Every structure is written in C-alpha cells, then in structure tokens.
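pipeline stage [seq->struct] | target=PPK19 protein | organism=Acromyrmex charruanus | residues=579
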Amino acid sequence: MEAIRIELSMKCDSGELYGTTENPFAVIADMKSSRRKLRKLMRVVRNGVTRIKFRANKSQGKQFNTIIQTLNYFCTHTTIHGLRHIVNPELHIIERFLWLVVFVISSTIASNVIYSLALRFQDAPTVIDIESMHYGTSYLPFPSVTLCPNDRVDWNRALELEPKIFPNGTDKASLETFRKILGKLSMMSFGDFDELDFLKNQNVHSLAGINITQVLYEVMPRCDQLLSSCWWRNADRNCCDIFQVQKTEYGFCYSFNSEVAQTPPTDPMESWPRRASGYGDWTGVKVTIHLGSITKPSHTNSSDSNAKQVDGVVVIINEPHVWPNSGTMIPSGSRVSMSLQCISGYATRRVLELDKDKQPCQYDENGVYHQETCLSLCKRYWVAKYCSCNPSFFFPANNRFRDCTIEDFICLITYNDLFNDYIVHFGDDYPHDIPSMICNCLPECDYYIYNTQFSNVPLHNMNDIMLDVHYLGQTSFRYKTDIVISQMDLLVSFGGIISLFLGGSLLSVIELVYYLVSVMFSSLRSRLKTKEEPRNRSSVMHVHTRVLPILDYNPLKSRARKIPIFTNYGLAELNLNRY
C-alpha cells in the first residue's frame, strides 16, 4: 500500500510571498505570482477540501470482483456474435431477451450438429476408392495354381503300400473296408463325409492304428507321371521343380507358386512369390495333365462307385499364401486357356490405426492372414470341437488337436450337415441357435482377387488336359480403403459449424481461456487484498479541513510577519495564545 502524502505548501517565506527586492519590476512580478498562489489557496478555503495525492500502482490491470462482472466484460469484448447485444445497456430489455433467445437456439443447433458428427466419427465409416485403373500386372503376384485330379489315389501305389500297412496279414473284411475307405477319400472333399455312411454298421477298431493322412500322401499320383510339358516365363521348366505337393480341402494335390505347400521349393534362390512379366498366351504357366497315368482300382467294390466319376481335374486359383479350398472342374480331353483379371487393394495407414473393433479388415504385417485361410482354420476348429480331432488330410496339422483316425470317421459322419454350412460373423456375440459353423473371419486389408475366364477346346481321342494360365491384360484396377472422416476433417467441420452458427473461431476459445485465467488471478488477488486491509489504509481519501484566513497581508511591506496556516482548525483552537 502506497504511502499517502499530503502536500499543502503555500511557501509563505518572506523571500517568496513577500518580495524584498528593491527593483519595482521584480516587485510587480512577485505580486502577480503571489496573487495566483493566493487564489489557489482561497479555492481551498471555499471548498473546505484539500486534495490528497496518491501514488497508485499503474500496472494493476483488470480486476474482476464478481462472476457477473467477468461475464459482462467477456460478452462485451468477445468475437462471438450476439453476446454483446445481450449485455448492451442501451438496448431495451425485450431486444436483449430476443438476442438471448437467438443465441441459445443457434448454440443448441450447433451442439446437435457437432454431436452427430462426433458420433459418425466414432463409428469410423470407411470408403473404397479407385486408386488406379492402370495398375501394372507385373507388380502383382502371380496366383497359386493348384491341380487336384478327381481321383487322387494311384492304386498301383496303394497296392504296393498294403503289405506295409498290414504286415502280418489281416482278415479279408478289414482289408476290403480299408480299400473302400481309400476309394471314397480319393474323390471326396471336406463336407462329403456322408460318403462314408457304410462305416456305421462296421467294426473299424482294427483299423484305428492306421495314419490315414500319411497313407493318402504316399498313394497320391506321382508328379513326373501326372504332369509334363511345363512352361514358365518364356522357358521350358521341369514340372516337379515348379509344382509342389499341396494339402487342400480336396486332399493332396499339386500346386504352382504356393507359399503354404507341403514340400519346400527346389530353388531357394528364386524370388517369391513368382510374378509374370507379360500378358496373353505363353506368358504365364503352361502344363499338360495326364489323367490316364493314374491307375484305377481293380477290385469290384470300388470300381462300381468310381465308374460314375468323370475324369477331370479341379483347378484352384487363389493368392500364393491362401489355403486352397474350392475350384473349377475341367473335364479330360480339353485344351483350356484360362485368362486372369486381378483386382487388388489395400487399406491406408489411417484405417490400420483404428481400434480393432472398428477396423473393417484384418491386417497382418507378415502378409500371412487371409479370409479364405481363416475359414479353413475355422472349419478345422469346429471339427475339433465336436469330434476332438483334426482331419489333417484336409487341413494343416496342429499340435493342439490330434489327427483323426478311421474310428473318428463315425463322428465326422454324424455332424456332416453341420460341417457343410458356415456363417461369417463379425463380433464376439455368436448366434448359438443357428446349426452351422460360425466363423469370425474379417477380410484381409491387402487383397488380390483373381477372376477367371475360360476358353475350352476339346481334344479328341485324348485323356489329357492342356492348361495355359495367364493374365488377360497388361493393367488392372487397384482400390484403396480409407476412412470417411479423419481427425483433421473433424476439426475443420467443427470450426465450420461454430463459425456458421456462432461466428466463433479458435481465437474465441483462446479468449474464453484468457478470461477464465483472469478470473482466477482476480479472485486470488482479492483474497490477498482482504488479508492486507487491516494493516493498510484506504487508497482513496478526502480530508475535509478548515483553513484560517491570512492576516496582515500587505504585499508592499518590506518584511511581513509569518503567520502559520493550520489545516486542522482544532489545532488552531488549541494554540490561541500564539495569535
């Protein structure tokens, strides 16, 4: 608190108020100066009030003593439209009320629009856009081409394997049952377990120790007898070098350019996956399939069932790292030109950064995940759930589940209807009342979809199939999955809504923060001031005084007697003896 000084000086010394100089002009000048001082003194006498000079702190700034004062100041100086009219004292109360109603309505509409936009952002909707209509096929991985003959058991090899399976001789009934099982498995795929219905009335306990998966692998047709005349990238190739044994939902087959094959590639230095450099005939893979080299069964029971089977091969086209599950059957005696059109796509980084429950696809950094593979593993899971085993001749082997034996075929037959139907369901809540396999398999974020077009020319008097798989064109479509509303889009939308309805901006928010901070500091300063008030006097003071008149005033006197001036009349009354 600044000290208060009362400056009341009349300078009544003889050298100032009564001139002593002998120069008449100087005397006149002193008289004029003394008269001005006298007039000033007389004003003090008439008013009875003397001015107290207070050295205030000029850097105190704004002080808000109440919330109402703060809001009034904010509404007066803010850039938000309408608030200054609400607190304007020059407007009529009705006008101010109408402005308040308009401001409340605008604020409500803006809040609803912002809330709906925020909910839409939380839902994280995505959109698929075309990134390029001329994406080069040379950048695409060539698909995996899997060949599965309709009869996947060479019976010459099966007869050679029988002494190893039954070394000590077995009763004829068990041997016939084994051959019949092998004949059915050579033609069936997953979900065709009803073909084994004849096992329900037979005792297969003596066949329980047979590893049926290993048996099917050893009796499959040999590569050098089944495939020939292979061509890849403008050069003849050894078929057994580029085709590998592949386990599928049809059983054991041969696959080209597969990354999930059973046997490793013969040339580890070759780049994987393989890619084609051109399009049209003779630019992809060519192969001749000799179905006549597969030995048919000679025993009567199996021949009757196989007589209805049409000779041909199932061609499965999919991505190199996908588990083969379904394909197209091509009959024998055909020259087939298979043209491919690939549609590829990917998800942007903004999609991959979404929460797991909001991502429209499944991302795998290693590129191993694929929806089709997930569905195959889902089927394996449901078989293990109901039958406690894994049909490893259809699906990948797994240490969690034991391989199914011939005794487990009874369970597979029982639940065959369930294994023929699956539903792709997203989320954690499964519909338990639906008698089907529920698979939670999202689409992959990076995908390649191969569409095929066939051109078939019959080959007379031949049991072979000549297959040419190639790209149809030099370019393809490439798509991009992105989110509809990004964080930047949301910020811009919020700013536009606030500006449209309220005329505010980011600076308006800064103003609000500024006034809130000012209120905090003002409140703190008021508390400190309240504590200091008992020790300090008021900063503004008016002192009412009586000034006694000056006696014996004569400016022409050479020397006047000094008469004291008392600002307090009480002091003059106590010192009457001095006059």
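stage status: PASS
auto-comment: Residues 93-123 form the longest helix (31 residues). Residues 1-21, 53-61, 300-307 have pLDDT under 50 and may be disordered.
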